[in-house]
Amino acid sequence: MTNTQIISGKDIATHLLETKLVPRVNTLKEKGITPKLVVILVGDHPASASYVRQKEKFADKCGIIAETWRYEAEVTEKKILEEIERINKDKEIHGVIVQLPLPDHISIQKVLNTIHPSKDVDGFTPNNIGELFLGEPTLQCCTPKGIITMIKESGHELSGKNVTVIGRSNIVGKPVAMLALNESATVTICHSRTKNLNEHLEKSDIIIVAVGIPEFLKGDQIPAGAVVIDVGIHRKDDGKLCGDVEFESAVEVAGAISPVPGGVGPMTVYSLIENTIESAERN
């Protein structure tokens, strides 16, 4: 039996919610401010609806307001942009996220460019991404922020460590590499086309896998004792969920590993709620 530490994002998120977020919300309420998040949901994507329910549940536990504004898949781009402008002007609303994916006729870039950076609790606007890359205080992308929090909260140091990120998306790979760099880690970015991936992994202390390919990373590629954070989530043919890491083989060699589900997902939702509270505190 392996002694590998299982890093439960669910447990960390629950603990931090009770000890860190609830007191911050109570302080704001004493000043007459209740943090409010609006989620814009277009169409009836089942996975999106599930994510939105998680966000509402978490917000409720925390004592903040979370409203979901639902629109038919046929809604015009103009209408969504007008709604965002309305939210930008509303002082009672502290955060807005537009749940992805969006229908093809709505430009994600236009939507992101319309959200005011101070209410961009997803951390995706060009302004906030730029601040993150400069190492300035900003509303950070939720999944990368959640990953860094779970590594630190589970007792692992980032400073001076070799961190390998597998994946180069704008949502996870690039920003999490920057956040690790800001924590004084030495960062290598790999991806699905990296040649000799195993050579890059050999000296890794921490491996963050966000490549979007089911069970891409196997146990025999992981250095003994490394910390492995699995960002992927996929449904296999048998209906079971899996990540970007082959858990059964990885858990035998890793020093610590995040499970799927119950790993990075709850930390993403935690970070979203924390960003909403931060936005309310700033404003």
In short:
The protein has 283 residues and is an alpha/beta fold.
CATH architectural arrangement of the largest domain: 3-Layer(aba) Sandwich
Number of helices: 10
Query: Which parts are unreliable, with pLDDT below 50 for 5 consecutive residues or more?
Result: none
Q: What percent of the residues sit in helical stretches (DSSP H or I)? A: 40-55%
Structure notes:
The protein contains ten helices and eleven strands. It has about 280 residues and is of the alpha/beta class. It folds into two domains: about 30-115, Rossmann fold; about 140-265, Rossmann fold, CATH 3.40.50. The longest helix is centred in the N-terminal third of the chain and has 22 residues, at about 10-30. The mean pLDDT is about 95.
Task: Reconstruct the topology from this structure.
Layout: E1 5-6, H1 9-30, E2 36-42, H2 46-62, E3 65-71, H3 77-89, E4 95-98, H4 108-114, H5 126-134, H6 142-153, E5 162-166, H7 173-182, E6 186-190, H8 197-201, E7 206-209, E8 227-230, E9 234-235, E10 241-242, H9 247-250, E11 256-257, H10 264-282
Parallel strand pairs: 1-11, 2-3, 2-4, 5-6, 5-7, 7-8, 8-11
Antiparallel strand pairs: 9-10
Helix pairs in contact: 1-10, 2-10, 6-7, 6-10
